[in-house]
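Supplementary Text 2. Reproducibility record for the structural model of the 392-residue chain.

All settings were left at their defaults, and a single model was retained for analysis rather than an ensemble. We include the record here because the model underlies the residue-level annotations in Supplementary Table 4.
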Amino acid sequence: MSTKTAWIEQEIAGLKEQGLFTRIRTIETAQGAHIKVDGKDVLNFCSNDYLGLANHPRLREAAQKAVNEYGVGPAAVRTIAGTMRLHLKLEERLAAFKKAEAAITFQSGFCANLATIPALVGKGDVIFSDELNHASIIDGCRLSRAEVVRYAHNNPDDLRKKIVETTDYNHRLIVTDGVFSMDGDIAPLPALAEVANEHGIILMVDDAHGEGVLGTGGRGIVDHFDLHGQVDIEVGTMSKAFGAVGGVVAGDKTIIDWLRQRGRPFLFSSAMTIPDVAACLEAVDILEGSTELVDRLWSNAEYFKRAMQALGFDTGHTQTPIVPVMLGEAPLAQQFSKALFEAGVFAMAIGYPTVPQGKARIRVMNSAGHTRADLDRALAAFKQVGETLGVI
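Retained model, structure tokens:
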């Protein structure tokens, strides 16, 4: 054991003892409802491919065509020599799709948060952040060096109270996830917008799990609540329902212009690659053309959720296609996930630090790509494992 890394080895050993060590499985096929993982054919209930677009023939064709025309990489940051016509077209299309004044794209949703928060607030400023916000929001807040005031999860009254109590500030920002990725619940955005307007504070929502899921044809949480023009910043990702990779910030044009000047991932990291941009453009075309995939996603999710609850599983407070199967302790969740895998269902255990201690779970990600037969097969596996392990 190296003396330099002895402490790391001890920490890893501790994680293994507590059942918190993440063992990463390897996928050997394209993403989809049916995949091969570690040599085994399984049903996929893990991925964020909500609409089944990650291996959609139209996205593959669009990416290949763009590579033939423009090459693979942009070879520069956006502000020097990396902005290509496709980037601007995607931003225009995303702004129109989301009914926003303007949009800017980044390399990922994580980068979008790291760009936006520190560009808007800094030392001497205050951020009001939901206590269950995603790690990318937390890291963006840390990078900003602003004071972070956490308010109780999805509680506009506590937010209002914290705002009144916090009197020493220069600029202020309210930030929340739209759909909370571990519980599947939705932020009370109309009430948060009301609080933001009352106090003249910029409101930012990270809609990573709402893109392609909420709103008409998957236009997101702002469309879902019909709050166009009332939410200053809507951050999203194209790495989930859009089936590719990339981040987007849509909203107030002044803020978008500012991010082109001060968003550090925009300034200092190479632009989105050509095939990803082209695939994202095709995803917008598909979503604008029909609500069929979004409708199927919700139909599948409601069917699965009702059946799981009827079996006696605790599915938490979900309001979306994310279905947490609450199990409590991490070792049980890992045992449950392993047994599901043996039964042909790929659904990973989620434990601390991703979720609080004692709230480990299997997080089921429904998809428009699943058939009713797929769902029934998964439900049978959950029933079998749940009974064997004494969960139901």
